[in-house]
Amino acid sequence: MLNTDTDPAAGMHSKDVLQEAQPSLDKPSPDKPSEKKARPGRKKRTFATVAVLALMAGATAVGTTLPDPKSSDAYRSLEGEKSAVESERDSAKSSYESMKSKHDTLQNGIAAREAKVSTRESEVGKADAAVKTAEAAVKAREEAVTGAEKTKAANTVGDGTWTVGTDIEPGTYRAAAAVGSTCYWGIYRSGSNGDDIIQNDIPGGGRPVVNLSAGQDFNSTRCGKWEKQ
Predict the structure, then answer these.
(1) What is the pTM of this model?
(2) Whole-angstrom distance, CA of residue 60 vs CA of residue 64
(3) Are 187 and 157 in contact (CB under 8 A)?
(4) Phi, then psi, of 187 in degrees rounded to 5
(5) What is the SS3 assignment for 228?
(6) In a structure prediction context, what are the per-residue pLDDT tens digits for the chain, which is 229 residues long?
(7) Distance (Å, whole) CA 219 – CA 64
(8) How far is it, in rounded angstroms, from Cα 151 to Cα 126?
(9) 3-class SS at 210?
């Protein structure tokens, strides 16, 4: 501060010195242009820049002082859980692939077996058809033999008296086997009770033959069977 007391060495008061110097401070010098006052907008921009720099410096300081999140217990716990889940996932994936491989193998085996079964069924069907054909042929032969036997039986005459056209068919009959010496056969007019003899014989052997017509009676005694020719 300026001392307002009297300066004995200078021989004048300091107040007078201030008064003399005051005009030169208040008024601009004629030789120099007057300085312009700072604009309010420029002050605001300067303040904002300073504030941003301060925030950046503070953020940098805070960032350097924060702890590493990877070193925390919570992070390590989450990492462990993540590893466990990944391990379970890989195990499940491996198990699924193994089961899928077995499933595919079984499916292929089933398909092959089904193809074999289908082939065997086809072969069995063919065999059944062949058996049925053979059975039909055997049945036809049996029926033919049976028919022939029935026909032969119908056309076979044994011992007894038979009316031709009623009991036996007309035709030529021959002894089925050689007759003995006691064989007798006779042909009579029907209804005559053996009184009207048309023909008779005691052949004594061999295989005799007789011709029978409707309206006749045929008698065979101890001659065996006669077969229609």
Answers:
(1) 0.40
(2) 6
(3) no
(4) -115, 130
(5) strand
(6) 434 444 444 344 444 433 443 444 444 444 444 444 545 555 556 666 666 566 565 544 544 567 788 888 888 888 899 999 999 999 999 999 999 999 999 889 899 989 989 898 989 989 889 889 888 988 888 888 777 777 778 789 999 999 999 999 999 999 999 999 999 999 999 999 989 999 999 999 999 999 999 999 999 999 999 999 9
(7) 147
(8) 37
(9) strand
